[in-house]
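quick q for whoever's on today - can somebody do inverse folding on this one?? i tried earlier but teh output was garbage lol. tokens:
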């Protein structure tokens, strides 16, 4: 009927006049034919062709280069992760050490706090006016307590033998002197202690050699005290053997040198100091005085004077009260 739409053509409805023979022929232009030999080149092997210009596709060499680059990046990242883990472990270790130190410090603080709480209350601070009204501050008392190991020791000095004590042929084994063999000195000292009634029960622990004699260590302070207070056993040893008593020195700076002639009359200088400072009445005794200077240096108007007492109490008294000279 008129006005009806025409049906779409199908393969069976198309006529042969729709296509021509030329449509199925390959179309090759002169320009493409001219550029074909130059667009491809043979490789060295001669078996394959590679495009001389980029065609937008990745080659095998580029793929391998990319893979190597990724491997390098992965290795670097792995190394960085491992080093970071090691640093984290070290940080954790340091944190544990600091934690332990903090715990120890807390324990010490608690112990100190406990000790402070036990201590008696300190006296209230006085004003300067109060101190001046009371006549000054009492100097602190100094105390020197002999260590326990020294309480059991007694030192003696003796003269040097005229012959070598190690010479068995010429040496006299019955003579006491310096640098004897330990067993020989031990025998002499023990026999001397046994020969005196006041020291026959003294117990000797051991004997050592010094530059001027020997040091004797007793087993208890009682034995050492008996050997110090009773010197009869020293006479049995002979050879001018005597006790070596500890001395306590004090240095007095800027002492007038014109009041003392220590080179020719040192004993008179000691008596002068003992008399002017009333040391005898206090039970103190000075054993030696000397100028503290170099041998090649001339003695000036003032110098440092060394004073050695036989007791710590004498040295303490002079430190607190000072030295009176020419008064």
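ok took a stab at it. sequence:
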């Amino acid at each position: 009927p008129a006005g009806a739409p025409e049906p779409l053509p199908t393969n069976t409805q198309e006529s042969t006049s729709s296509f021509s023979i030329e449509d199925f022929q390959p179309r090759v232009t002169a320009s493409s034919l001219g550029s074909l030999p130059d667009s491809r080149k043979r490789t060295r092997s001669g078996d394959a062709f590679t495009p001389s210009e980029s065609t937008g596709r990745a080659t095998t060499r580029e793929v391998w280069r990319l893979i190597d680059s990724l491997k390098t990046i992965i290795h670097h990242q792995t190394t960085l992760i491992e080093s970071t883990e090691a640093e984290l472990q070290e940080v954790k270790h340091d944190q544990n050490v600091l934690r332990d130190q903090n715990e120890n410090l807390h324990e010490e603080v608690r112990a100190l706090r406990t000790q402070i709480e036990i201590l008696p209350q300190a006296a209230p601070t006085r004003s300067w006016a109060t101190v001046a009204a009371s006549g000054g501050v009492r100097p602190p008392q100094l105390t020197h307590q002999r260590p326990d190991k020294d309480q059991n020791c007694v030192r003696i000095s003796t003269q040097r033998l005229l012959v070598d004590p190690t010479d068995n042929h010429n040496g006299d084994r019955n003579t006491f002197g310096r640098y004897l063999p330990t067993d020989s000195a031990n025998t002499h000292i023990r026999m001397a202690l046994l020969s005196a009634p006041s020291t026959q029960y003294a117990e000797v622990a051991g004997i050592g050699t010094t530059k001027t004699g020997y040091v004797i260590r007793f087993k208890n302070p009682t034995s050492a005290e008996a050997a110090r207070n009773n010197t009869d056993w020293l006479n049995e040893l002979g050879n001018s053997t005597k006790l070596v008593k500890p001395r306590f020195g004090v240095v007095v700076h800027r002492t007038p040198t014109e009041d003392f002639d220590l080179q020719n009359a040192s004993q008179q200088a000691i008596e002068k100091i003992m008399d002017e400072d009333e040391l005898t009445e206090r039970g103190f005794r000075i054993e030696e005085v000397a100028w503290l200077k170099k041998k090649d240096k001339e003695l000036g108007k003032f110098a440092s004077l060394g004073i050695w007492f036989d007791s710590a109490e004498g040295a303490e008294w002079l430190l607190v009260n000072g030295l009176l000279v020419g008064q």
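fwiw The chain has nine helices and nine strands. also Residues 162 and 171 are 9 Å apart (CA to CA). so keep that in mind when u check it
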